[in-house]
Prior knowledge:
Chain A has 301 residues and is mainly alpha-helical. Chain A has seven helices and eight strands; from the N terminus they run αααββββββαββααα. Chain B has nine helices and 20 strands.
Amino acid sequence: xxxxxxxxxxxxxxxxxxxxxEIAGLQAQISAGKADPRPSADPVRAxxxxxxQEQGARLERYAGNLDRAAGRLALADTALEAGVxxxxxxxxxxxxxxxxxxxxxxxxxxxxxxxxLRSGLVDVANARDETGLLFGGLTTRGVAFEHDxxxxxxxxxxxQQQLRSSESGTVATxxxxxxxxxxxxxxxxxxxDVFAVxxxxxxxxxxxxxxxxxxxMDSVVKxxxxxxxxxxxxxxxxxxxxxxxxxxxxxxxxxTETLSGLEDLDIAAVVTELNRKLLTRDASQxxxxxxxxxxxxxxxx
Amino acid sequence: xxxxxxxxxxxxLATRAALEVTGDxxxxxxxxxYHRRVTVTGEMMGAQSSPFHRGQDTSGVRVTxxxxxxxxxxxxxxxxxxAGAQAAQAAQPYLEAAEQRLMPEGxxxxxxxxxxxxxxxxxxxxxxxxGLRSVVLxxxxxxxxxxxxxxxxxxxxxxxxxxEADLQVTRANDILSxxxxxxxxLLRGVAAGSPNPILDRRDALLEELSGIVVVHVIxxxxxxxxxxxGRLPGGPLLLRGTEAAELSMPQPDRISxxxxxxxxAVQTRRSESGAxxxxxxxxxxxxxxxxxxxxxxxxxxSEINSLHEAGARPDGTPGEALFVARGWQAxxxxxxxxxxxxxxxxxxxxxxxxxxxxxxxxxxxxxxRLYEGAAEIGNGAEEITVPGLSLRPGGDAQDGDRLMLxxxxxxxxxxxxxxxxxxxxxxAEMPAAPGSPPSGDGRIAxxxxxxxxxxxxxxxxxxxxxxxxxxxxxxxxxxxxxxxIASSEALLNSVQLAEARISxxxxxxxxxxxxxxxQAYQANAQVISVAREIFxxxxxxx
Lengths: 301, 542
């Protein structure tokens, strides 16, 4: 078959530049360490990659939310630890006050200590982190508990901050104040809170009722137990958050593997292909030179 | 007896002509459009016998034709293959640019989108934090700007394809008028010698023309060709004899032919192949891409807005729309003498006129006048300000030039993020008791952040995945375009080979021709020298 000389040169030139472009593309992939990210290179891989990246962002959000929940629960635990200590002291004072040998001076001392313990407990209930109240429900501003004419009243709400911790689940970052500091059986079928229990103790000291000290003792014990139970509930919630964090971390590790499978370059395969292409280029260049060099004109004289 | 000298001389002349043709072939080996020339020789007719002369069989050789090695069928296949390759190649740069633009590396909105939802997720846990709220404002503005820029970039790409198509139409019309001039030369016989160079030039132009629009070529008896639009015969006539029609492109996938015969109606056809068809496909694909970006942005805005409107601001009032896509479409009137454009800024959507508006240049007063219907609602030299709107006209408008402005909704190029203050973000759930302040929770922010992934049940959310779907669609058409280029080029290469076999110059072959003709020349010279010796012998014998 006869081929026009100019077409032979033009086609050889076009082939060399095409193979040169392929080699440059492979080289770029090798130096970037990533497979060609353009969807046109592999539409299905690009879709999977985008889904995996989106899932990565989602997992990061869940991990952040769980960190945040763990932080708030840890702060709540610390605050409640102080509350439990306060109630322990109130209990000791109640035991001391029940003693028949207590004199007036001692009673005054207990009364003023109770005053301090009660406001200390209000401070505990108003504990905050950098974003707001820990025990105000969904209310983050102002105070959760406040003294007024009727004693200590709750200013927050019954809400509970829920943060998304997985595609289908949420975690609570705490319990509202009334659940922790209130809800104590008052012995008469109703409910009371820890502040009222201490107030009732103070009243008993001011105007002793016969047998009243037994009731006080009873309710102080219940209040101390209730607060300790609340702390345990917070601890259980924190443990749950820890477990979920572990699960999310596990998913993140697996996702990283998936991502690297989709995104990272199969160096061995690409280098092999590069070598093959280099060989093809060299061979075709050499054969081009060999064919193009000899011409019948060389033999004319 | 003198015949033998004549025969030798005719052989010398013919082989010299053949040597010249070979030299021509070698010289033009690289000339584009050159078709190899072949020397055709024939016997000279001998003298007839008469009562006084004996008849002669031959009396030498003569060059009957210097033929162009041309095959009409291969040329037609070549034109089709060129049209196909050009169609595939013309669309590709635009599609590749669109793909690149949608990628994060090219300024795509993927990162802005995930940043936006991340901002809601972060503020959801601390909804009172003014710093985190302002992160939401920044992320929202960034996302809206990213969507706007993307929409404008796609419009710009489509505009570039339209400009290129206009240039190609101009080039096609130039080629048609060149062709009509060449045919005129051909028919008048201007080229005193052979018409071959004109034919080479004409075939090259026809090939270039079919790279722009596919044409059908029918040779006529007088050596000219008749060219019609389309791959098959019977399309609108583009060239006959010395007359050429004019092409135009009234809309992206239509080609109109204004016939050369006066009074004939303009004929419009769908583009079939060639660069114009590739460009029209690119414009179509970019338009479809643009609409899917519009639809995507609209869905994102409406779902986010309705959720945000259900939320409560810190002061207890309900939230307003976060994203609004509303703008003014400016369309210059067809009768304008100069170019005119305007920057339109919405300063307050509630106060602005409903439109349509028209902006008219008053050169005498050196003013721009803004009309709503027949009523003038404002004017100015540099800037026109009316309630809710501010316009800055530009261009080189002449007196009476007009710019029509209509309000449009839902165009991604107008998307803007509305809240200016952190207090305008309604991140809390509306309190059950009307009028009471919200508790400061971030439940609406959390639900907005949930929209990053598809929300179970109601089919909302999942915008990143949808965006990735749009991108993958572009990627698939880029990949398909690459395949089309590869296959059309393979076809073109095979037709080029076929053409080269017929028309191309092979230097080895020419070298062997050169030797052959050289030897023939020497042999003919030898004939003359033998004839002379015979004469000498005869003369000496007397």
